[in-house]
Write a structure and sequence with these properties.
The chain is of the alpha/beta class and 268 residues long. The chain contains nine helices and seven strands; from the N terminus they run αβααβααβαβαβαββα. The strands form two sheets. It has a five-stranded parallel sheet with strand order 2-1-3-4-5. It has a two-stranded antiparallel ribbon with strand order 6-7.
């Protein structure tokens, strides 16, 4: 009498595993599903032609990649933040907490999508020195030490969904007028760490070096790429320039070239 129960248990486990990120990457390209989680900066890039780029690519290459966008987190009681602490708080700390069910956890997203793209808006670059008392994964203070703890926890969480791919943007930069040199240096230090140390070639997490594109190798978002010298949102011209690069980076991941191509997406 115990065998049916055991069989049911293994069947349930098998179905759950098969139900997470098994639409296209692991079963051909017929139903590839991609979601881009973003706020205002991401929305500007999205509106620069991401959807139409994929439509053209599918037509020219006989593929059926489907990309959608989603404001994350949404305008819920949780708030309108998408920094390392917020992703960690929703996806790691409170993944099973009903209070946060209005925001999709990875347990939800990985059942719907094969590739999840995530990013932070430019206030992520307002990095301050870590206060006394040491770093804490449970702190929303924007300092390098806290960010590293939150990123390590997020990496472990994303790695626990090996059938799903993740594309992380390095954070949006700030124009020089609204920050200072020390803060800008901390931002570059952290995103260099993300690219050179946190990212592990061969796993299911990939990087798009958006910070590098915005700064052109410097410390600040270039004024000519911004809405204005005091507004760190991307200009429409810059968005039109980088949207195809973003799309190509996604294709590199989908088609298995991501670890052998440039993390800015600018070279094949």
């Amino acid at each position: 009498m115990k065998y049916p129960a055991i069989i049911l248990l293994f069947t349930a486990v098998f179905l759950f595993a098969m139900g997470s990120c098994d639409h296209g990457l692991n079963g051909g390209e017929e139903d590839m599903k991609i979601v881009f989680l973003h706020h205002s900066t991401g929305n500007i890039i999205w509106n620069a032609g991401v959807k139409s780029w994929f439509k053209t690519y599918n037509k020219e290459n006989n593929t059926k990649y489907k990309i959608n966008e989603l404001a994350f987190p949404g305008k819920s009681p949780y708030g309108w933040h998408n920094y390392p602490y917020d992703y960690w708080n929703i996806w790691v700390k409170n993944a099973g907490n009903k209070k946060f069910m209005k925001e999709p956890t990875l347990e939800i997203l990985t059942k719907k999508y094969d590739l999840i793209v995530l990013k932070h808006c430019f206030p992520v670059s307002k990095i301050v020195p870590c206060p006394g008392g040491g770093p804490s994964v449970d702190s929303d203070i924007k300092c390098i030490e806290n960010y590293k703890l939150q990123y390590e926890a997020l990496k472990e969480k994303m790695n626990s969904f090996p059938k799903c791919k993740f594309l992380l943007w390095t954070g949006a930069a700030l124009v020089e007028e609204v920050t200072d040199e020390d803060c800008a240096k901390r931002s570059r230090e952290f995103f260099e760490w993300v690219r050179k140390e946190w990212d592990t070639p061969g796993d299911n997490i990939y990087i798009w070096n958006f910070f590098e594109l915005e700064t052109a190798g410097g410390l600040y978002m270039k004024d000519e790429y911004a809405v204005s010298p005091t507004n760190s949102h991307p200009s429409s011209e810059f968005a039109a320039m980088v949207a195809p690069i973003f799309c190509q980076r996604i294709i590199d991941i989908v088609e298995g070239h991501a670890d052998s191509t440039n993390v800015t997406g600018t070279k094949r």
